[in-house]
Amino acid sequence: MRFIIIGYRDAYFWNEYGTSVRDLQIAEILSREYEVIFVNRPVSIYERFKNKSKKKSVYEKLSSRITFLDSTSYDLFGPLQGRLWTERCYIKFIDKVVDLYATNFNGKVIIIDFTPLAKINYKPLKNVIYWYDLIDNFAIHNRFSTREKIAVAQKYLYVDKHANFITAVSEKALKSFSNKYRYVMPNGVYIEEGVNESIHLPKHHKKYQLGFVGFITDKFDVEFINKLAEKYTIIIWGKCFDDKIIKLLDYRIKVAGPFKYNDLPDIMTTFQVGLMPYLTEKSHDESPLKMYEYFKYGIPCLSSMNFEIDSKWFENYSNLSTEKVDDIISYFLESSHSEDVKKTIREEWMFDTKIKTILSRLK
Fold first, then answer.
1. pLDDT of 236-259, one tens digit each?
2. Residue with more model confidence, 135 or 273
3. What does 247-293 look like in DSSP terms, one character per residue?
4. What span, in angstroms and rounded, lies between the C-alpha atoms of 350 and 305?
């Protein structure tokens, strides 16, 4: 069985941040047992000159098991549209990929499309299954413009009609789909194969009481974080996509900046309680990867919303008094990085287990 993956992220993202996102994690897990061909987003001629030189050796360092397909687009005007360019930049390249790697392949080919905007022709072939994965509900994503959300809605309509299989991180994200073969596959605890990583983290001095890892956008609950900073030490790790958010943060909060996924074992020793401070109105039906990362390293989690896991080490602060939040943080601080937190992880939380369950439906 062969997998062709059309990612939302690609090898360039992998090289910069590691397997820190859903589509790359799925690709890496599948490559442990199957042949995986990964299609990079076509790179504009502007990007080639600026920061994306074509270096095959880079791909080899990422995963010897994955074949990355790279292409250059000479469209001079399309890239000026920004994200909307991805609506049509894949069309010709994907048709060639399908002809080369699927049409005459003697076996089953599963094409996984993670793109929220790209117009990709799901060409009917006897040996091909088209699997669409939402990642998040981009039709309501806080980083997408109105025009982009309309384009996403159009893509979802096409997928709903033509995909053989659809997955999303939550029931809510699938609400607008009527496809008979739609399934919920939340994110999970991810252990990258070949990386010296353990959920039994060695004990280190915890410099900060509270911490956050992930991308920082305008859905960040600044008011809550600043209130916590009056009593607790806080560190924030991750790339910021909205500079105004950083400027609004209390001066006592340490902003550590971007990191690579393989830095997480060290990063997770710098704080004791993990934060997921999101504004509910800017949520896009997600399943936060960081929630599972916190648990993987034995770190209790304080969140503004409930998600799919149920644990005494996960607490929603949204309707709690200040006194109750302080009590929970105190309790969490005492148990941080303990075996009690790590034992909360169940087999069904593991991402590779969730993927195997979904694959069993495809066979």
1. 999 898 889 999 999 999 999 998
2. 273
3. HHS-TTSEEEE---GGGHHHHTTSEEEEEE-B-GGG--S---HHHHH
4. 21
> What angle (nearest 5°) sits at the alpha carbon of residue 134, between those of residues 132 and 140?
145
Residues 6+ apart with CB under 8 A from 236: 211, 212, 216, 249, 253, 254, 255, 256
Q: Which of 129, 201, 128, 122 is nearest to 155 (CA)?
A: 122
Rounded-to-integer distance, Cα 117 and Cα 124, Å: 20
CA distance 339 to 31: 31
Say how far apart CA 309 and CA 240 lie, in whole Å. 27
Contacts of 323 (CB under 8 A, 6+ apart): none
Structure-token pair, residue 207 = 């410099």
Tokens 């080639």 -> residue:
48
Please report, for residues 99, 142, 173, 325, 352, the alpha-carbon distance to residue 281 in angstroms, rounded to integers and kept in the order given: 43, 9, 15, 21, 31
The amino acid occupying position 34 is Y
In the block, residue with structure tokens 């049509």: 88
Single-letter code of the amino acid located at 109? V
Distances (CA, A) of 180 to 139, 171, 328: 21, 14, 43
Residues in the chain: 363
How many Cα atoms sit within 13 Å of 185 on the Cβ side?
27
Q: What tokens appear for 175 in the block?
A: 């609400």
Strands (E), 127-253: 128-133, 165-168, 182-184, 208-213, 234-237
Q: Compute the distance between CA of residue 324 and CA of residue 59 in angstroms, rounded to an integer.
A: 49
Six-digit token pair at 134? 């939402």
Residue 256's region, left for phi above 0, alpha for psi from -120 to 50, else beta, is alpha
132-146: average pLDDT: 89
Instruction: Say if residue 23's pLDDT is above 90.
Output: yes
The dihedral built from the CA positions of residue 252, 253, 258 and 260, taken in this order, carries a sign that is positive
Q: Residue 57 pLDDT more than 90?
A: no
CA–centroid distance for 273 within its chain: 21
Structure tokens at 65: 């098991």
Instruction: Enter the DSSP assignment of 225.
Output: H
